[in-house]
Each structure stands twice: as structure tokens, then as C-alpha cells.
């Protein structure tokens, strides 16, 4: 699970083009909330759901919220060396932490984060762990003792996929089939207040410092900016051919990657 900015006015570090997470307020990524709901539903009475988050100490609030809902193991992956990691390095760090803490039948992720919008970490995590991955899932059902049946949301249809454990599944947000995220109970809130959170650092994982964080990332953010919607004055064109010609000229004048789009 991940904390993300709750406002588009979040500040950026001008040197690294990364978010300054100390500024503004943070919220739990919505797709991750639905992934947690799916995990808790599958766990039921016989299983357990653990939560991993990578971030600063402020992410402890996310973990305590998850505990109040029913999560058991709470893990904060936190080390200055990990700052600025791209999606692949993030997946590598998550995989190392998951391997260190034990063997899991199923790893559920949100299908994307609203701040990055790449949707890459789940698939990359599965690749690093060398396990199957099912993406864009809106429904999960256990199939026998060692398999999971998933319904995927595609552009024009739905697809049912079954895979053996262990596996990684990325869950869609805001879809009725997933189930509306539950509310915490009073007992859960009380338990979350004194729950133990395990902090995982690179001293634990022993990853090469040059392979994590900005130093180990394959991608760099070259520019960050707020996209402002503007208006242009357009004169109505009653003639169809002239209107099409004007529209084509306008489209050709728009620059991809510049200030105008």
C-alpha cells in the first residue's frame, strides 16, 4: 500500500523532481484500499493479511488504519537509500522485503497509484519474485486449496483467469464486484493504537546501495508541472470544409511535450 498526495498542489524538489512528502496532506491510494479489502475478505477467519508500505514515518498512519480494518503484520520499508526509487527499483525492494518476512500465498496490489499512474509495480514485483501476475482484477475467489480464480476488467469485456499460488494480483478501485471497503470497528481502532510496526531498512535487506534509490533507477523525472486547463476563443465556422481545415491546422499546431497540448 502507498501514501499519495491528497492535493495537486504538492511541492516538488527542484533538484530531483520528486515529491516533497512533508508538504501538504497525504492519503492512502484508493486502489490499495480495495486491494486490502479483497485480502481481508479472502483471509476470512482462517487466514491473515499483512500490509507492506514503502515510505517515510508518516506512512505508519496508513499501517494503523489497515490494522484497524483487520490486517495483522504491519511493515514499514523505510531507508534514506530508497528515496527516489523508480517503479522497477521499488518492486525490487518490495520483493526483498516480502522474501525476508516469509512465504505468502497471494500478494495483492492496487492496479495503479493516483500520483504516478504507471500501473507497473505489480507486474514488476511478480517478475522479480518469478510468480504469475493477474492484472486489473475486479473479483477474486479461491479455487481449491492452492489456486485463485480472478475476473479481469478489460476494455470491452471481462476475462476469467485461474492461477496457482503463489501469485501477484493487481486490484481495480471503485468497482462494485470488489466490494466496498469496510469501516473499522471500535475494537480494531483500539488495537491499531498499540499495534507493533516493523521497520525494514537496507541493513535488513542488504541490497547494493548503488542499485536502489535514484542511483539505481533506470528512469528519471525530467520535468514536473501542474497542468492547467485553459480556454481559447474560437470563431464559429458554418462551412464544413473550412471548419475541418481549421481543426486540422489547430491539431498540427499543438506540441507534444511542450507547454501546449
Describe this structure in words.
This protein is α/β, with parallel strands linked by helices. The protein has a single domain, classed as Rossmann fold (3-Layer(aba) Sandwich), CATH 3.40.50. Helix content is 30%, strand content 20%. It is built from eight helices and ten strands. The longest helix is centred in the middle third of the chain and has 15 residues. The chain is globular and about 70 Å long. It starts with a strand and ends in an 8-residue tail after the last helix.
Structural class: alpha/beta
Mean pLDDT: 88
DSSP, total strands: 10
**Biggest sheet, strands in spatial order?**
5-9-6-7-8
Describe the structure concisely:
This protein has about 260 residues and is α/β, with parallel strands linked by helices. The chain is built from eight helices and ten strands.
Q: What is this structure's SSE topology?
A:
Blueprint: E1 3-5, E2 26-28, H1 30-43, E3 51-54, H2 60-69, E4 74-77, H3 87-101, E5 106-110, H4 121-129, E6 133-142, E7 147-153, E8 158-164, E9 167-171, H5 186-193, E10 198-200, H6 202-205, H7 213-216, H8 240-253
Parallel strand pairs: 3-4, 4-10, 5-9, 6-9
Antiparallel strand pairs: 1-2, 6-7, 7-8
Helix pairs in contact: 2-5, 3-4
Amino acid at each position: 500500500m502507498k501514501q499519495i498526495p491528497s492535493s495537486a498542489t504538492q511541492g516538488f524538489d527542484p533538484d530531483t523532481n520528486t515529491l516533497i512528502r512533508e508538504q501538504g496532506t497525504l492519503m492512502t491510494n484508493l486502489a490499495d484500499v480495495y486491494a486490502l479489502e479483497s485480502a481481508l475478505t479472502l483471509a476470512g477467519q482462517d487466514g491473515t493479511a499483512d500490509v507492506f508500505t514503502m515510505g517515510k514515518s508518516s506512512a505508519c498512519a496508513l499501517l494503523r488504519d489497515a490494522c484497524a480494518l483487520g490486517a495483522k503484520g504491519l511493515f514499514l520499508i523505510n531507508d534514506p537509500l530508497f528515496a527516489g526509487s523508480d517503479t522497477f527499483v521499488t518492486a525490487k525492494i518490495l520483493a526483498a522485503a516480502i522474501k525476508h518476512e516469509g512465504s505468502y500465498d497471494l500478494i495483492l496490489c492496487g492496479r495503479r497509484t493516483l500520483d504516478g499512474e504507471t500501473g507497473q509495480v505489480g507486474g514488476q514485483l511478480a517478475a522479480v519474485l518469478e510468480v504469475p501476475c493477474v492484472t486489473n482484477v475486479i473479483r477474486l475467489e479461491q479455487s481449491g486449496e492452492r489456486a485463485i480464480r480472478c475476473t479481469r476488467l478489460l476494455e470491452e469485456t471481462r476475462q476469467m483467469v485461474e492461477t496457482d499460488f503463489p501469485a501477484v494480483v493487481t486490484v481495480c478501485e471503485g468497482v462494485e464486484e470488489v466490494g466496498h471497503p469496510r469501516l473499522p470497528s471500535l475494537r480494531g481502532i483500539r488495537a491499531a493504537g498499540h499495534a507493533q510496526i516493523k521497520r525494514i531498512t537496507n541493513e535488513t535487506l542488504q541490497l547494493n546501495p548503488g542499485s536502489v534509490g535514484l542511483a539505481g533507477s533506470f528512469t528519471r523525472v525530467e520535468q514536473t508541472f501542474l497542468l492547467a486547463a485553459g480556454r481559447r476563443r474560437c470563431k464559429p465556422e458554418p462551412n464544413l470544409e473550412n471548419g475541418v481545415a481549421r481543426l486540422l491546422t489547430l491539431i498540427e499546431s499543438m506540441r507534444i511535450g511542450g507547454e501546449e497540448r
